[in-house]
Design a protein that fits this description.
single chain; mainly alpha; two-stranded antiparallel sheet; 2 strands
Length: 165
C-alpha cells in the first residue's frame, strides 16, 4: 500500500504544480510545461494503480494460502480425532487387522467341531471390533484424503493465479 500511496501523492503533487502553473502562466511556455509534466503525472497515477493491483493480488494469494492451511489443519484434526496416526501434515493409513480367522474345516468329531467352533467364535469376537475400528479408520482416512485433495487443488489454483483472477 505504501507504493500506491506514494504514487498517489506524487500524482497529487504533479496535479497541484500544473494547477498552480495554469493559474498564473499562459501562452507557449505553459503549454510546453504542461505537455512535459502531464505524462509524468499520468505515470504516477498508473504506478499507484498498478501498486494497488499488486497489493490486491498479494492479499488474495495470502488469503487463499490461509484457507488452504485451515483445510490442511482440518484434515489433520479429523485424522487425529479418528485415531489415525498423524505425522506433521502426513496422515497415515489405518493398519489393516489382517485376515479373518479361518473357518474350521475338515472331518471333525462333534466334540472337536464344538471346540473348533468355540475357538473360532472367540477369535471372531476379537477380530470384529478390530475390523470395525479399521473400517471407521478407512472412512476417516478417505474423508481426510478428500480434504487434502481439495486443499492441494486450491493450492495449485492459487499458484497458477496468485491474484485470484
Amino acid at each position: 500500500m505504501l507504493a500506491a500511496s506514494r504514487g498517489d501523492a506524487a500524482a497529487d503533487q504533479g496535479h497541484e504544480a500544473r494547477r498552480r502553473a495554469r493559474d498564473g502562466w499562459y501562452g507557449p511556455g505553459f503549454q510546453a510545461f504542461d505537455e512535459r509534466t502531464r505524462p509524468a503525472v499520468w505515470n504516477c497515477e498508473d504506478l499507484a494503480h498498478t501498486a494497488r493491483q499488486y497489493e490486491r493480488a498479494a492479499r488474495n494469494f495470502a488469503s487463499a494460502l490461509d484457507h488452504i492451511n485451515e483445510l490442511m489443519q482440518s484434515a489433520m484434526d479429523t485424522g487425529s480425532q479418528a485415531g489415525l496416526e498423524v505425522r506433521g501434515p502426513i496422515i497415515m493409513r489405518p493398519k489393516h487387522p489382517g485376515h479373518p480367522p479361518a473357518v474350521p474345516d475338515g472331518e471333525l468329531t462333534p466334540a472337536q467341531a464344538d471346540a473348533a467352533y468355540a475357538a473360532y467364535r472367540g477369535e471372531m469376537d476379537s477380530y470384529m471390533p478390530a475390523l470395525a475400528s479399521y473400517n471407521a479408520g478407512v472412512e476417516a482416512f478417505n474423508t481426510c484424503l478428500e480434504i487434502v485433495r481439495d486443499a492441494r487443488n486450491r493450492e495449485k489454483q492459487a499458484h497458477r493465479s496468485p491474484g485470484g483472477t
